[in-house]
Amino acid sequence: MSTASVVAPASVAKTRKAKAPDPTVTDPALVKRAVKAAALGNAMEWFDFGVYSYIAVTLGKVFFPSGNPTAQLLSTFGAFAAAFLVRPLGGMVFGPLGDRVGRQKVLALTMIMMAAGTFAIGLIPSYATIGVGAPILLLVARLVQGFSTGGEYAGASTFIAEYAPDKRRGFLGSWLEFGTLAGYIGGAGLVTIMTALLSADDLTSWGWRIPFLIAGPMGIIGLYLRMRLEETPAFAAEAEKAENNRPKTPLREMVTGQWRALLLCVGLVLVFNVTDYMLLSYMPSYLTGQLHYDETHGLLVVLGVMAVMMIVQPFAGALTDRVGRRPVIAAGCAGFLLLSVPALLLIREGSLLAVALGMGALGLLLVCFTASMPSALPALFPTKVRYGSLSIGFNVSVSLFGGTTPLVVTALIGATGNMMMPAYYMMAAAVIGGFAVWRMAESAGRPLPGSAPSVAGRHAE
Q: Which residues of 217-256 are buried (b: 16+ CB within 10 A; e: fewer)?
């Protein structure tokens, strides 16, 4: 009897030890390819959004002719926001599909749809040519884009997170938002060049089409890169379990079974995207439409801010691996709460230096989110539902709060006449984000939930 009592615990310990998952050793070359393919898709998505935002005034004249410039801008941003209304539907389709058939296949599909929707916008006739059919076709193309992007960010961030070694997930994930900034700079830079070289009539009649038509070749390149990728080790391990008659997770369980993580995801994405769209999508139109700032100079300032953000981005991502995601995200929330009003007052002062300082301060605060979220958000969910649950939480939050930011803030300024509304909106988002980061667990340096530990291969940089 006494012998059994001694042997049993040792037996249990051996069993537990045997069941412990072996660490996944990552292939550095494969990780680099995965990061590049995911970042390029994000770059293409935000190239389109950047172009749409920076050329919004021209699009208003082409598709929504009106004697009121504010009404034109509201209509253009309304079509912009409409794409976000279908993003949750795309997330509900592509997210669970990615958990069932694989991340790589779904990311290839979203790339095709995204490129097709953007390319189609460049082919739509103007309102002067076909009347009301023009804005309707624009809306349809935006809905295709919105539906496809419903599976893009969650899939891309999941893809990188599941490939990355645990101790370098922040650094490698930060390149996803590097792609975002590169896409914005590409879109904004192209619009700036066209604005400088083309007359207003040429820009309105045909020049605006060029950025959208570029999406075709970009989509082919992105599709090629994504088709060459292998599935992530985490998904491959989960798929092997499923072969042993493991039941598939229904969509309902992705929500009800993950409700706490979903609420945290919504709060984090809210502050991330409200500030992101405020700075990168709305501010160019705010400078020209509300403050009557010179259009070319305004675009150049925003381009400069994004270039600085790109430089800082990988270093900030590496910082999250050392000090953690929570401190960096919390610093961003505190910064937006305390500095949004002073930064906007600087921007409203109007001089080039003041605008650059105000925009630069907001841009550096935004890096706290862009460097942290691609690694923090996938770590909220276990492998078997990661793509699906993250897609739902991310897209619900973006649709309700992020993509509607330009429309809501423009409407608030029009209704109240208060030009400080952008600052107040960012401060409110910072409070919600601060509460979310207070409740989230630290994930830096730790395995993803439901996945084996992941370590870097010998030749990792």
A: ebbeebbebbeebebbbbbebbeeeeeeeeeebebeebbe
3-class DSSP state for residue 389?
helix
8 A C-beta contact, residue 223 and residue 123: no
- Let me know if 288 is exposed, middle or buried by CB neighbors in 10 A (0-12, 13-18, 19+): buried
CA distances, 290 to each of 58, 121, 203, 425, 458 (Å):
16, 27, 21, 16, 54
The Cα–Cα gap between 214 and 51 comes to 11
The three-class DSSP label of residue 76 is helix
Measured distance CA(293)–CA(22) in Å, rounded:
59
Residue 77 tokens, joined: 């941003």
The tokens 């804005």 sit on which residue? 135
Rounded mean pLDDT for each run of 10 residues along the chain, 461 residues in total: 41 45 75 86 77 75 71 69 81 89 88 86 87 84 86 90 92 93 84 83 87 83 82 82 58 75 94 89 76 72 89 96 96 97 91 89 96 95 90 89 83 88 95 95 90 70 43
Q: What is the helix, strand, coil percentage profile of the chain, to 5?
A: 80, 0, 20
Under 8 Å between Cβ of 172 and 31: yes
pTM of the model: 0.84
Query: CA-based Rg of the chain, rounded to a whole angstrom?
Result: 23
> Among all chains, which residue has been given the structure tokens 């042993």?
244
Burial class (CB in 10 A: 0-12, 13-18, 19+), 277: buried
